[in-house]
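Task 17 of the worksheet. Students: predict the tertiary structure of the chain below and write it out as structure tokens. Keep your answer in the requested format; marks are given for formatting as well as content.
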Amino acid sequence: MQLKTFITLTVLSVLLILPIGCATHSTRPYIGDKPGLDLSKVQTLSFNEVKETIRTERSRLNTLKAKADIVITSPGINGEFRCKGVVRFQKPGKLRVIGSKLARTAFDILSDGEDFWFYLPNEKVVYTGKCDSAKKIDSSVYISPDDIAALIGYEKLFEGRSAYMETLPVFWLVHVLDRKGDAVVPYSKLKVNRIDNSITELTMFKPDSSIKAQASFHDYVETDGQSTPDIIQIYWPGTDTSLTLDLNNIVINEPLKPEIFQFKKTRKADIIKVN
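Model answer:
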């Protein structure tokens, strides 16, 4: 009986989401197909095959380290900020991005999978909180380290959740749904290229069905047998902030030292909890 009820709720949720999805979530419009696209290479796969592609796309990626050209745009920093940096990622949910400019650290963002830290040396402040939890709207945390880690390591999106797929001319849209009590709500949405099976866009939703964060993945390259994007763009609508990581010197699945993901307190900065 409970299974029948859940299935009914899921079907009703799908019917409700499809007509109003664009208006409710205000996602970025899908950009037109690239000129000269060879439509003869478009694949026809079943929903289970597409789901398996999504799982395996990231299942082989355990760690990543790279240098990066970083661009941040946010009202909180009065426009655009550019710097060089390093990126470190490790499953599950561990991330560190350090941005530097003029030989000085501009910011240091860190997630150990349970807690996150956002250190701004110039402002002498460290914002910290629990991963995957609501943050104060008026806080200065315009970049969420835990969101970045979740958007890079996404192979477990389907665990304990239902999903359905839309087939469009050159890509698939996979909608992942979550159950909150008696309600079925959108959890994430993936855009999958039908030619090379690459994940080009991933949207994560809040419990109220508004967009939490949206990532775009561009210019995939083969690195040690693993397909990885050269450019990762993440947008947070709540703070109107975008982060672009243009990666280079990518190395994957190399053991990383545990201390990389350990926050070291500094006496020169105030620590502010944001959730």
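Marker's comment: Helices lie at 2-25, 47-59, 145-152. Confidence is low (pLDDT under 50) at residues 1-33.
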